[in-house]
Design brief:
about 450 residues, mainly alpha, Methane Monooxygenase Hydroxylase, Chain G, domain 1, 17 helices, 6 strands, globular
Length: about 450
Amino acid sequence: MDPILPDHFLALSRLDGLLGSSAGAYDTSTLAAHDFDVDNRTGFMPPQAPPSRLPEEYEPWEIVLDAAIAEGLQLGDKPGITAAEMSRSESWRQRVRELPTIPILGLIRSETNLRRAHLVLAWTMHFYIHSLPPDVPVVIPLPITIPLFQISTHLQLPPVLTYADTVLYNWSLKTPSNKPTPALDNLQSNTLFTGTNDEQVFYLTSARMELRGVEALELMRSTMDEAFVGDDIALRRITTYLDRLATVIDDLQALLMTVRDGCDPSAFYNVIRPWFRGVDSDPSKRRWEFEGMETDPTWTYPAELSGPSAGQSSLIHALDMFLGVDEFSHAPTLTGHGQTTKKSAFLTRMQLYMPRHHRNFLNHLAANPRPLRALVVGGNPQLLGAYNKAVDALKRLRDRHMQIVTSYIIQPARRAAAEKRGEQVGLEDSQQLKGTGGTELAKFLKAVRDRTAAAVIES
């Protein structure tokens, strides 16, 4: 196994040891700090650029992904797609079907190589699926199915493209640097579906937010340390930390809005976003069939096959949990692959797409025996005001996110529907619009925003 990355939640491990003897339900002293894979310089992103290539024996996977990008494969449902483009896509898909089935034994000792392999195979699978004509059944070939299922089992991830594949592990430095934290303007995304600057900006916006969020994670750690002490000095320090947290969240909001500087809404909606689609957002409602599933009797059809979503960012989940906003969520009923099934709340579902170490971190945060809200309710007016300030900042971030989603998804969807039907599109059309995670987008985002606003504590 690779050396585990250092992280700045060392204090939590010390805290665990103390709590273990007096708060048995929270005895997580067996969780070493490295279990969270959260770095004090880069947060949920790795502190060094992820590997850009797998070991030599897995080069066939890298080559076929390179070919998809170099040949500029087009969406199978692209309006006006030419016969030459369709032929080029089919020739590439034939290469995928003819790939050797490569054992993954050479990967399982390296977490970073497993992540890279998941990225390569998931991107290849999405190229394969979404370059198909919309009336052709989706059958993922065996040379992709078997290693992707095996790797996904090791990583405890769904066999589909995730936020981690597009953002967390999909970057490098534009210019070599010895700085411990990458400069926000020195990042580039390595793998793109379209090769456009619009797509690059879209991923990098999230990556920069993750890096700016490192300070938020440090403030959470410091707050939890002081909450354990709980005296007047500790409460004053927590008040200062929450004031600062509000500033950091406002910085996240500002970074989010920079996506408008380089990513065109029409290009995103029509050219980039369709490559992300999972089963639950396929306009043709096709079931994905995986060749070779029968080779392992332990494999069952994946319950989760949504595409990458901002809802898979551990940073935003951590802010919700830390501030106690998640206490105001409710589990909806969602529909997937033509079947109505009862599923957990969307944000809980999205945790299944996160790296497992980050899920461990969120579980640890959720199990905190001294939650911040309880401390605030029994605290002084200054502490209450600082807490509400942080919650208000998070609500503003959600407001801005709704603005971005409206500009980049809802409005383009209305225009596309109007052009297709030749008539005016009403608000009800966007209310039913699905996100890449399979949610009814507008309704879900409003609910999350309202939930955040409801977390403000009245004085």
